[in-house]
Structures are given as C-alpha cells and as structure tokens.
Amino acid sequence: MRFLLGLIAILAAFILLRSLLEPVVKAVVALLTPPAATHTAAGVRSGSAPRASELKKDPVCGTFVAPELAVTQEIRGQIMHFCSPKCRDEYSRRA
Length: 95
Hints:
Strand order of the largest sheet: 1-2
CATH architecture of the largest domain: Roll
Radius of gyration: 27 Å
Mean pLDDT: 83
Number of helices: 2
C-alpha cells in the first residue's frame, strides 16, 4: 500500500512539475526558433524551401526542380528549367 501511495505521489509531482515547466520551455523554444518566412511583394516566400507549386518540371527527364536550383536557358522567349546541364544540352539537341 505504501508503494502505491508513493507511486501516486511521484506521478502527481511529475504532472505538477510538467505543467509548471511547459510554458517556460515553450518560451525558450520560441526565442531560439528563427522567425517564420515572410511574403515579399512578389508573393514569393523568403527564407524557406520552395513550395510544391513552385517546382518546375524538366522537359527532358521529368524531374521536378526548384527554380533557384535549376539550370535555366531561354528558348524561343521562354525560360526553361532543367535539372542538369546534361538535360539542357539534350533538349537543345532535340530542338
């Protein structure tokens, strides 16, 4: 019986301690976390990974690539996005 009461007391102390420390831990994490990405005037998020809708499909191999990482080339007035120089060169040979 004493063991059970001791176990309940330890559990109650743990729950109380957790409820007291949780707001403090959340505040510290909020201070250490970098600010959320903000939208620029052009509507593009800065400081974050590209969203799926922003990915461009390579016309040669079909790989989806982020525009800022893509190998680009203007072809007939249109900017084309490629995953690699190899795909860009292959597309140029076909055109």
